Amino acid sequence: MSRTVILRILTGLAAVAAAFAVPFYLDGFWLQAGLFAMSAAVGAIGLNLLTGATGQLSLGHAFFLAVGAYAYVYFGSEPEGELGGLGLPTPAAAVLAVLAAGVAGGLLSPIGGRLKGQYLGIATLALIFFGQHVLFNATPVTGGYNGRAVPPLELFGFAFADSPGLVVLRVPFGALERLWFLGLAVLAGAALFARGVLRGRPGRAMNTIRDHEIAAGVMGVPVARYRAGVFLLSSMYAGLAGVLLALAFQRTVPEYFGMLLSLDYLAMIVIGGLGSVAGAVAGAVFVSLLPQLLTRYSDALPLVSDPGTGGLSPAEAARLLYGVAVVAVVLFLPGGLAGLASRTRAAGRRWFSPGSARRRFSPSSPETTSPESTSPETT
Amino acid sequence: MRNLRSTVAAAAILALAVTSCASEKATGGAAPSAAGGDGVTTGPGVTADTITVGVMTDMTGPYASFGKTLTQAQQLYFEQLNAAGGVCGRKVELVVRDHGYDPQKAVTAYTEIAPKSAAIAHFIGSPMVMALKSRIETDKLLTIPMAWSTNLLGARAVQVTGTTYDIDMINGVDFLVKEKGLAAGDKIGHLYFEGDYGESALNGSVYAAKKLGLTVVEQKIKPTDQDMSAQVAAFKAAGVKAVLVSVGPRQAASLVGVALAKGMDVPFLGSNSAYSPQLLATPAAPALLKDFYVATGGAPISAPLPAMRKLVSEYQAKYPGEALDSGVSAGYPAAAIVGEALKKACEAKDLTREGILTAHRARGAWDGGYGTTMDFSLIDRPATRATYIVKPDKEAVGGAVIYKEAAVSGLAEEYPVPVG
Amino acid sequence: MITFLELLVNGISVGAVYALIALGFVVIFKATEVVNFAHASLLLAGGYVIARLHEVLGFWLALLAGIATAALVGALVEFLVIRRANVAVRSVLAIVTIGVDIVLTTELTRRIGTEVLALGDPWRDRVLRVGEVSIAETRLVALAVAAALITAFLLAFKYTAWGVRMRAAAEDAETAALMGVRLGRVSLSAWAVAGALAAVAALFLCVFPTPGLDRGTGLAAMKAFPAAILGGLDSTTGALAGGLIVGLTEALMNGYQNQLAFLGRGVGDVAPFVVMLAVLLVRPAGLFGTREPARV
Q1: I need a labelling partner for B411 at 20 to 30 A (CA). Which of A245, B126, C109, C190 fits?
Q2: Does residue C236 carry a pLDDT above 60?
Q3: Is the CB of B138 inside 8 Å of chain C's CB atoms?
Q4: Which chains pack against A, by 3+ Cβ pairs within 8 A?
Q5: Does B44 sit behind a cis peptide bond, omega within 30 degrees of 0 on the bond before it?
Q6: Does one domain contain both B142 and B221?
């Protein structure tokens, strides 16, 4: 048991403890922003499997998020007036919603399997416009432009809602505090599963398809089946993110599931680092929290002026920074934020424990195999 | 190793348990409510010397121009209020959050400012208000939305000012029949946006058309549509005698321009969000100045009312050279509604949210000098049913003048408003 | 019948504008195999310059300035970003152009603010009437310009040295490079040309029947995506065909909205995408696109 391992375990534990402590200290703003970030992280992990690991561009991620969110609401709500609903227990509704997103992905997988790269990207653009049309017009299911109230999740009699009241360690636990822990659990599960996929046989097959499709076929990887399968898996991740998002929003908003959302997801995985779970999470946190932080602390920042005073507003500054980040990461930071972190760690290891400076041969951890390092020319 | 791990875990949990007692959030779950030294009961957003009022606006999204003037007009009101001594000896402080018309940012910003605000003086974007409506209702936070669709009615804490879009359209159709020669059996076009704005307005036009024996020819578009040629062709083919316009200013300008160029000479009547004075600087101006009207519940900024004149001069003094548009004439009265609710609540020595709401909803007839009289005791109905007919005008302040004074048509009077 | 003819003419004329935008996508895709999401901001940049300068320089000089600026911006994007990006998968470059688009669009919309800017074109709101059918002059010009430009590109790809280099690079970049084609120059020129095309398209997007340039103008570029991919991302003819198909679908669906009410209203925006999906399922590389042969 080397010192580095102990160090790693300690940092891990500290991170977990910090994550658990958050709802006890930070106010609603942080919890709300954090919940959005967690949901984005789950969705980004899914997209990273498709785009980062397999090289398939998708602009339809927002559509699958919408399927997840709306399916949860539809399955979990009692019928009310002209709005339909199945009134299932909410945990069942959540599971079914993820499956529904999977079914939607499965129905479209002929497209996902046949089209590749950027052609798929633009084809999936169609899903967003189609999805918006359905959200606005299928009123009995979606509530139309009004959206629908999201039934709070109730797990074994414990409701993730403001009532009944609950006080933990003298801190009042409302919906946000409770959902925080749910979000953590969902994110951890989603991340572990994706890590398993990426580190195992499927992950290697996916990377081979990305790096050289024909070589993958020659080596016996069923390319079209893998592409379709990853498309399905990534849509289920989006569905799960959609459920979490609906719970955090407490109401579905049809306008939200538009093209900008899909573009945000692509930006997340590039900024965070393509093809890795940690990268997706880092990117999601960066993209979700940056505008919130800039708005909240705009007084303290140079160059950023108050909204309406004519200068660069916080929202605009956030957009600019985020656009620049996408470009800068690709130009200067191959591997994204996750790549940066692993390189810093590697450098740190060399500094702190000269004894263990020899290179570790871990079974291709996703952080160390950034796409740039392995791929041949793909022209 | 296992030992170490469990020790660390135990230590972490212990540390958490101990320190959380020192956390600011640890209130033991008791609701914070206190009586100040002056005998006024206070609630969230009210301290011994300040009252915080939130503003949820859009300064970087599609309603940026509206959001900017709205916010400035409201800042002007609260500055004047503070200069006159504030409310209950407290200064009113405005906290402005720009959500850029993004529901996620709006929900986060609301979560941030709601616990420390006593009211929300304006909230742009009905998708965002709708997303938060039930939370606003639970929080009992008096909120003035800057959107006029019927789905915003029915919550005690949400006060829609003036008329809703459907009422405007009913009064508008009535105006077309009475003054523009439409008769039973005629067809009338309605171009509207997907979403609550357009579809609320459509409810009104369909109702009025049914009562008056007209037929509505519907054309639904999305905000990204820019060229209205196909829609004009469809209206022309249907032989409509007038067109109602519940879209954005850009689409309205395209519609009116194309219709004029193609020799379709009919009157156009827009909802209050279909016109913007900026359009008078574009080639669409002649068409807009010809036969285009706007039905709106709020008086235009050029209205010959003393209070409005005063507002114009004060606004121009504070923000010289800035455009005066409907944001000013809508924002300042909305701020006044909140300001006067606070004063009433102060008189009752109850500045809790419940106290502010009660004070606000107790006012059966309020006009503040800005034209329409509103009844705030109505929760599931619009505060007024009187609509102005306004016409674009190059010379006027704010680019529009009153064409016909505010009036309630018989149809609008008996119209059952759909709620929720 | 009159309505149908009118919608047909409308559809074709809108389609011409989409074809111009789609042509910009095609030129870049041919040279660099990137779907350019920054095209919207190039449009906005070109339109903005025309709008700001037409009062000072007059319309035609302002148009030239707009075209030059957009071409320069396009070239700069290629030189500063695309060329330097070291990526394995072309899809990532597409995402990079999203980043570029966000930066440029944010700055341009901040400058445009809340104004609606007129472009000062000489055609104003005149329409040409043939019998009962009328069509805006701006659209006739757009159709003529699109047809001329697409013919010019077809000829240029076939007969000029630039065209040959471009095709060689698209066919097999490595071999082309070995045979003395400077890939950097090919790519740079393609981006500049696409920028110029974007400015021309911006002109026709912002004149009558629309009131002018505003912050939302760039979004129209998104409608040209189905046009470009439907025709085939690497086909000049495809851009024209795709543009016309999208324009016609949209116009007819909108015009007959009342007869199609069972599909839900506002279906005109979705229809082009449905057509695109249908085409892609049958021909994954679009109508005129070339299926990339497998190279090992």
Answers
A1: B126
A2: yes
A3: no
A4: B, C
A5: no
A6: no
Q: Inter-axis angle of helices A117-137 and C271-282, to 10 degrees?
A: 140
- Tell me whether residues B130 and A147 touch, CB distance under 8 A: yes
Could you tell me the CATH number of the domain that includes residue B307?
A: 3.40.50.2300
Nearest by CB: A122 against C88, C102, C225: C225
Mean pLDDT throughout A136-145? 88
Do B201 and B249 lie in one domain? The reply is yes
Residue B319 maps to a domain: yes
Domain positions in chain C are 2-218
For residues A49 and A36, the answer to whether their CB atoms sit within 8 Å is no
Structure tokens given for B340 = 């006067």
pLDDT number for residue B246: 96
Q: What is the rounded distance in angstroms from the CA atom of residue B201 to the CA atom of residue B166?
A: 4
DSSP tag of B319: S
Contact criterion met (CB < 8 Å) for C14 and B229:
yes
Residue B369, in any domain of the structure: no
Indicate the residue of B24, B28, B111 with minimum beta-carbon distance to A28: B111
Instruction: Give the Cα separation of B164 and B366 in Å (integer).
Output: 17
Mean pLDDT (whole number) for B174-183: 93
Q: On the CB side of B255, how many CA atoms lie within 13 Å of its CA?
A: 32
Chain A residues with CB under 8 Å of B16 CB are 17, 20-21, 24, 169
Assembly ipTM = 0.87
Given B361, B377, B396, the domain boundary residue is B361
For range C152-166, the mean pLDDT:
89
In chain B, the number of structural domains is 2
**Chain C residues closer than 8 Å to A48 by CB:** none
Q: Which residues of C touch B219 (CB under 8 A)?
A: 254, 257
Q: Which residue of B has its CA nearest to A144?
A: B195
Within a domain: residue B15? no
User: Given a cut of 90, is residue C73 above it in pLDDT?
Assistant: yes
Which of B24, B111, B131 has its CB closest to that of A147? B131
- Residue A364, pLDDT above cutoff 50: no
Of C35, C81, C95, the CB nearest to A122: C35
| pLDDT > 90? residue C212 | no
Residues 6+ apart with CB under 8 A from A356: A2, A3, A4, A349
Give the pLDDT mean for A79-89: 87
Average the pLDDT over each of A107-116, C96-105, C183-192, C212-221 and give the range with the smallest value: A107-116
Model confidence at C78, pLDDT cuts 50, 70, 90, reads: very high
Total count of residues recorded for chain A: 379
Pair (B77, B45) in one structural domain: yes
- Residues in chain A within 8 Å Cβ distance of C225: 122, 125
Q: Does residue B56 sit in the same domain as residue B191?
A: no
For residue B245, give its domain range.
165-296+386-414
Span C48-69, pLDDT tens digits: 999 999 999 999 999 999 999 9
> Nearest-CA neighbor of A193 among A47, A46, A36, A16?
A46
Give yes or no: residues B355 and B211 share one domain.
Answer: no
A-B Cβ pairs (cutoff 8 Å, strict): 148
Q: Does residue B207 lie in a domain region?
A: yes
pLDDT, tens digit, 9 for 90 and up, residues B50-85: 999 999 998 877 888 888 889 999 999 999 999 999
- Domains of chain A listed by start with CATH number: 3-374 (1.10.3470)
Q: What pTM, to 2 d.p., does this model score?
A: 0.88
Of C211, C215, C268, the CB nearest to B279: C211
Task: Pick from B21, B111, B136 the residue to mutate for testing the A interface (most A CBs within 10 Å).
Answer: B111
Tokens of C208: 């009558």
Question: How many secondary structure helices (H) and strands (E) does chain B include?
Answer: 13, 14
